[in-house]
């Protein structure tokens, strides 16, 4: 049995990738401790599904934060997590520290245990240089972007091993100057124990499109709201259900009021544990993933998309290079990123064509057959065991 510490700056109960990995280790008998922020969804718990929790600070979103403010918020958590991991390590030694980004430099919270013999994995969820370029409109040559790439390389160098989430993501990391041979790809795929293929096309009384998760400008929820406004006359009982939170939620709410679609668009603000969200997803008719196409989202393979596919739900998704690398037109209803009219057109077409909805869901099963969590879990176990000597 290995003793493993997970460090992550996220809402742990709602973060399926982090939970999936931690619970997989706990399920096979490893002693797993997670250092994470204190969030409302924890509800005061110090253990979830056999994983011990060490929450250390508050967590929230701001309507507008500068790059410097983001860095400051991250740095504060890194310092607190570093102190906590060292204290726990001195009390009882960790074999492995698994750090999940963002930020990349969160890996340095493991410096105490690392110097005292623990191995370190850096799990690179997102590309911070591309994210900041997208979020703040910065060119690749900007000193902030160049600085973030340097921090990324130093973070990867500090870790013993690193993880990328899919091949295009790894290709981008290598372009940043990171060594390919230091990485293992462990895809971010839904756990079939939680996401079982539903036996019907949804239980909602209305024709319901659903989105869950982060609500940022890059997620394109404003486009989805505009599309719902355009399509509602052609789809009796149309509902667009948006569940989640983020720094763009207030703007989306204002748009709903501005367009007068409050009866059509249902906004549910707040992150919830994924087991509470799944019944709402199962009741929906069609999943919507309307991400924009920019330097960051071009490398995204959204887990919500994969969760809808695992549930057997037809999906409308933006046509981006990474999504196209894994899905064809027979598997997803593709739409032009940022084009509300195109998205509305797909909404209406799927409403009118139940056979196409069925065919999309069936064809998308080929992705799940090839890429699934049981296979990725085995790869993850092999990576961990190679580092702790199991």
Describe this structure in words.
The protein has 390 residues and is of the alpha/beta class. The protein folds into 2 domains: 3-189 and 372-388, Rossmann fold (3-Layer(aba) Sandwich); 207-370, 3-Layer(aba) Sandwich (Rossmann fold), CATH 3.40.50.2000. It has helices at residues 16-27, 67-91, 111-115, 128-136, 143-158, 167-175, 221-231, 249-259, 274-283, 303-310, 321-326, 340-352, 354-370, 373-388; strands at 3-8, 31-36, 47-48, 51-55, 96-100, 119-123, 161-164, 183-185, 207-214, 238-245, 265-269, 286-289, 315-318, 333-335. Strands 3-4-2-1-5-6-7-8 form an 8-stranded mixed β-sheet, with helices on both faces. The chain has a 6-stranded parallel β-sheet with strand order 11-10-9-12-13-14, with helices on both faces. α6 (167-175) links the parallel β7 and β8 (183-185). The chain is globular, with a radius of gyration of 21 Å. The mean pLDDT is 91.
Describe the secondary-structure layout.
Elements: E1 3-8, H1 16-27, E2 31-36, E3 47-48, E4 51-55, H2 67-91, E5 96-100, H3 111-115, E6 119-123, H4 128-136, H5 143-158, E7 161-164, H6 167-175, E8 183-185, E9 207-214, H7 221-231, E10 238-245, H8 249-259, E11 265-269, H9 274-283, E12 286-289, H10 303-310, E13 315-318, H11 321-326, E14 333-335, H12 340-352, H13 354-370, H14 373-388
Parallel strand pairs: 1-2, 1-5, 2-4, 5-6, 6-7, 7-8, 9-10, 9-12, 10-11, 12-13, 13-14
Antiparallel strand pairs: 3-4
- As residue ranges, the low-confidence spans are none
The CATH architecture classification of the largest domain is 3-Layer(aba) Sandwich
Going across the biggest sheet, name each strand in turn. 3-4-2-1-5-6-7-8
Which series of helices and strands comes N to C? EHEEEHEHEHHEHEEHEHEHEHEHEHHH
Would you give the CATH topology of the largest domain?
A: Rossmann fold
How many helical stretches? 14
Computed structural class? alpha/beta
Overall shape: it is: globular
Task: Classify the helix fraction into a percent range.
Answer: 40-55%
Whole-number radius of gyration?
21 Å
Number of strands: 14
Describe the oligomeric state of these chains in a short phrase. Answer: single chain
Distance between the termini: 8 Å
Percent of residues in beta strands? 15-25%
Mean pLDDT over the residues: 91
Largest sheet: 8 strands, mixed
Question: How many structural domains can be distinguished in the coordinates?
Answer: 2
User: Which CATH top level class of the largest domain fits?
Assistant: Alpha Beta
CATH evolutionary superfamily of the largest domain = Glycogen Phosphorylase B
């Amino acid at each position: 049995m290995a003793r493993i510490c997970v460090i992550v700056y996220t809402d742990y109960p709602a973060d399926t990738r982090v939970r999936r990995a931690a619970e997989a280790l706990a399920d096979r008998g490893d002693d797993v401790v997670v250092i994470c922020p204190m969030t409302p969804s924890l509800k005061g718990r110090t253990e979830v599904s056999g994983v011990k929790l060490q929450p250390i600070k508050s967590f929230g979103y701001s309507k507008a934060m500068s790059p410097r403010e983001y860095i400051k918020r991250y740095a504060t958590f890194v310092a607190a997590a570093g102190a906590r991991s060292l204290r726990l390590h001195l009390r009882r030694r960790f074999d492995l520290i698994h750090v999940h980004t963002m930020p990349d430099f969160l890996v340095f919270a493991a410096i105490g245990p690392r110097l005292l013999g623990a191995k370190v994995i850096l799990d690179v969820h997102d590309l911070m240089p591309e994210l900041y370029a997208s979020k703040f409109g910065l060119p690749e040559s900007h000193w902030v972007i160049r600085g973030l790439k340097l921090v990324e390389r130093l973070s990867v160098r500090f870790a013993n091993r690193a993880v990328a989430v899919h091949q295009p993501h790894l290709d981008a990391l290598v372009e940043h100057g990171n060594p390919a041979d230091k990485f293992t790809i462990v895809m971010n795929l839904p756990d079939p124990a939680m996401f079982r293929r539903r036996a019907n096309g949804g239980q909602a009384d209305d024709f319901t499109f659903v989105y869950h998760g982060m609500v940022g400008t890059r997620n394109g929820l404003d486009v989805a709201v505009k599309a719902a406004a355009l399509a509602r006359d052609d789809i009796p009982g149309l509902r667009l259900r948006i569940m989640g939170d983020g720094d763009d939620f207030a703007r989306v709410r204002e748009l709903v009021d501005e367009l007068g679609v409050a009866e059509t668009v249902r906004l549910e603000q707040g992150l919830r544990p994924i087991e509470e969200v799944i019944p709402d997803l199962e009741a929906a008719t069609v999943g919507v993933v309307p991400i924009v196409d920019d330097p960051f989202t071009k490398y995204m393979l959204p887990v919500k998309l994969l969760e809808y596919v695992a549930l057997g739900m037809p999906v409308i998704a933006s046509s981006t290079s990474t999504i196209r690398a894994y899905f064809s037109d027979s598997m997803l209803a593709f739409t032009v990123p940022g084009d509300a009219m195109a998205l509305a057109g797909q909404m209406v077409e799927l409403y009118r064509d139940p056979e196409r909805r069925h065919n999309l869901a069936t064809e998308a099963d080929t992705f799940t057959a090839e890429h699934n969590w049981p296979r990725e879990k085995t790869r993850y176990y092999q990576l961990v065991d190679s580092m702790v000597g199991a």
